Amino acid sequence: MDSMDKTDLFSLYRQMLLIRRFEEKSAEMYALAKIAGFLHLYIGEEAVAVGAIAALRPNDYVISAYRDHGHCLARGSDPGKVMAELFGKVTGLCKGKGGSMHLVDEGKRFMGGYAIVGGHLPLATGLAFAGKYQSLDQVTVCFFGEGALPSGQAHEAFNLAALWKLPVIFVCENNRYGMGTPVERAVALYTDVTETARSYGIAAERVDGMDVLVVRSVMQRVVEQVRAKGEPYFIEAMTYRFMGHSMADPAHGHYRTKEEVEEYRKRDPLLLLKQTMLAQQLANEADFKQLEQEVGEVVAASIKFAEESPFPSPAELQADVLME
Amino acid sequence: MVLSYREALNQAMREEMRRDPRVFLIGEEVAYYQGAFKVSKGFIEEFGPRRVIDTPITEAGFTGLAIGAAMAGLRPIVELMTMNFGILALDQIVNNAAKIRYMSGGQLSVPLVIRGPGSAAHQLAAQHSQSLEAWFCHVPGLKVIAPATPHDAKGLLKSAIRDPNPVIFIEAQLLYGTKGEVPEGEYTIPIGIAEVKRPGRDVTVVAYSKMLLLALKAAESLSREGIDVEVVDPRTLKPLDLGPIVASVKKTGRLVIVEEGWRFCGLGAQIAESVYAAAFDYLDAPIVRVTGEDVPMPYSRPLEDAAIPDLPRVIEAVKTLC
Fold first, then answer.
1. What number is the average pLDDT over the span A253-261?
2. Active site includes B59?
3. Which of B22, B71, B236 to mutate to test the interface with A (most CBs of A within 10 A)?
4. Alpha-carbon gap, residue A66 to A71, rounded angstroms
5. CATH no., domain B2-181
6. Dihedral over alpha carbons B81, B82, B85, B86 (to 10 degrees)
7. A4/B contact by beta carbon, under 8 A
8. Which of A22, A48, A314, B238 could, after both became Cys, cross-link B144 (CB 3.0–4.6 A)?
9. Backbone angles phi, psi at B291, to 5 degrees
């Protein structure tokens, strides 16, 4: 385990808390019809994005699927711009044209959320390829759910990454369910999906995706190795989604029990880190209370910004289809 | 100088790869095999395996990789062994290449060329003979080019490689060996500019790619019967340069559109709609379309011949308007 530095752990906790409160607020805004379309919440999985992205440098690439708010915020995007994007406002990261599933923040090297399952894994190999082609000291981290694992495009991407030794880290967020279908009914090698990567000669390991310190520590080692060797790596982060698949799906749904969700909630990533910090006497309840307040203000400000921002003008409809 | 269409493409890519180190060629058999149709002959020798990259037979994977590389600032040329195999990469082309700029609100761009032969050759049967340009033209965010001559092929491919957008560049197996005059030295042809390939007074024929050669032959034959055909080649299918087509129709009052693709929802239907909207009052007769038949391409020679526009059908179509 890393050295227990108070500021450092608070920073990790703060990022996870920001994602949690941001998304809780998003759900509220969805109920108020301020946000529409599909909204896939990352609640419960925050330790994966925060731990993994903490191991990266600013010029490394990050790419994700449609459950992407967490990765975008962990990469340091402005919560106001992210919320404005969810509201479909012109001040959003993508001028309101992408929405929840397609956040992009080029300045943060957050190369997007993609909503065709498996379709962004080849893009990740391309980002890594570009780094290698230009001899840049750069890695690409690609987040995706275990639901993408059996897709053909994922396998094509694994093969190319291994074949051409591309510096890409595939982070499989195994939250047990592809929408409502559990992994054992979707993935042949479900007992250990890292076998999928190993079958292509990609080094792989499973991590506890609920423990942000574990995720970060493993990722720091892996990122260093991938940077040095220029070969792909595969991480299976065992995690769990506390909310439904999307806002159309109640928290536990027909495909899993309330008890199961409650069981996983005992290992809430925020709770785990808080317990560690309290046990190590690195923080007290008052510290957390203050953090709650700070983060609450950031989220409230993001809502205010989104609310007060204008919708895109009609002229935006035709803009950005092609580059001049 | 006289070059084959194949050599013109080879020169275009070679010049652009020399000019811009970000340009690389990726696809099945492009390196050591020298290209399935020898378009990249000599490339591996000149540019080496870093920039001339043989892929496994996984179109979605390597097209997606190229799109990712383009997002990161490189300028990939993807060779599809044939455009038919682009179907395997359609998710990447339609959902990623075409949309990333828009979805990101203009933050990202995808400077990418996807090229390869479309349309029928000789008896390649149903899965290797398709003209899919209408599919690509349907998708906002893509440019689509289908040149007919070595001159246009070279000039337009160079422009496509320099373009900051995803460009689908459709060649034809039966054009690779055709020859034509190509200027010495550096030149480009802007994307989105049609050209009158043969001036005439009586009837306008719009045709592109392989069908342009057929239209010119028909025009030659009809001229002996006193019918003066003007042949317009859009060259770029999207964005379509409607101006020269409309100008021609205003002159002749009659239009025939020749395309090899399937009739229903074919590109000619769109061209016709655009011309009706822009020049209805100038038309002396309904627009006539000569198209491929709405069937999977049969293998058998006489059946295949029957499925593709030929000289008698183009001549007959023009005559119905005269």
1. 92
2. yes
3. B71
4. 10
5. 3.40.50.970
6. 100
7. no
8. B238
9. -135, 170
Looking at this predicted complex, what is its ipTM? Answer: 0.97
Three-state secondary structure along A299-316?
Answer: HHHHHHHHHHCCCCCHHH
Q: What is the mean pLDDT of residues B23-51?
A: 98
CB contact under 8 A, A321 and B55: no
For A260, other C-beta atoms within 10 Å of its C-beta total: 13
The pTM is what? 0.97
Give the residue extent of every domain in chain A. 6-302
Smallest Cα–Cα separation from A249: which of A309, A181, A194?
Answer: A181
For the stretch B177-230, pLDDT in tens is 999 999 999 999 999 999 999 999 999 999 999 999 999 999 999 999 999 999
User: In chain A, which residues have their Cβ closer than 8 Å to the Cβ of B24?
Assistant: 133
- Averaged pLDDT for residues A110-118: 98
Check if the beta carbon of residue A178 is closer than 8 Å to that of residue A208.
Answer: no
Q: Is there a contact between A60 and A42 (Cβ–Cβ < 8 Å)?
A: no
Residue B319 dihedral angles phi and psi, to the nearest 5°: -65, -35
pLDDT tens-digit series, residues A263-278: 999 999 999 999 999 9
The Cα of B97 is separated from the nearest Cα of chain A by a number of Å equal to 10
Which tokens hold the place of B73?
Answer: 């600032």
Alpha-carbon distances of A231 from A95, A168, B60, rounded to whole Å: 36, 7, 21
CATH fold, domain A6-302, is Rossmann fold (3.40.50)
What chain B residue is nearest to A89 in terms of C-alpha separation?
B105
Report strand pairing: B112-118 vs A181-182. Answer: unpaired
Q: What's the pLDDT at A80?
A: 98
Amino acid at site B35: G
In degrees, to the nearest 5, what angle opens at C-alpha A226 toward C-alphas A222 and A232?
100
**pLDDT tier at A3 (50, 70, 90 boundaries)?**
low
Residues A183-191 have a mean pLDDT of 93
User: Which residue type is seen at B245?
Assistant: I
B198 forms beta bridges with: B231
User: Alpha helices of B94-176 — where are they, by DSSP H?
Assistant: 100-103, 133-137, 150-162
Closest-CA residue of A relative to B105 is A94
Q: Which CATH number fits domain B195-320: 3.80.10.10, 3.40.50.150, 3.50.50.60, 3.40.50.920?
A: 3.40.50.920
A95 φ, ψ (degrees, to nearest 5): 60, 25
Considering only the beta carbons, identify the residue of B96, B104, B143 that sits closest to A119: B96
CB A232 within 8 A of CB A201: no
**A68 token code pair:** 């992407």
At how many degrees (to 10) do helices A79-86 and A6-31 cross?
Answer: 20
List where CATH 3.40.50.920 sits in chain B: 195-320
Domain with CATH 3.40.50.970 in chain B: 2-181
As a whole number, mean pLDDT of residues A195-214 equals 98
- Asked whether residue A1 carries a pLDDT value surpassing 50, the answer given is no
Helix (H) or strand (E) holding B14: helix B5-19
Q: Beta partners for B52?
A: B25
DSSP state of A107: G
Give yes or no for a contact between B38 and B30, defined as CB atoms under 8 angstroms apart: no
Distance CA B275, CA B267 (A): 13
The alpha-carbon gap from A77 to the nearest alpha carbon of chain B, in Å, equals 14
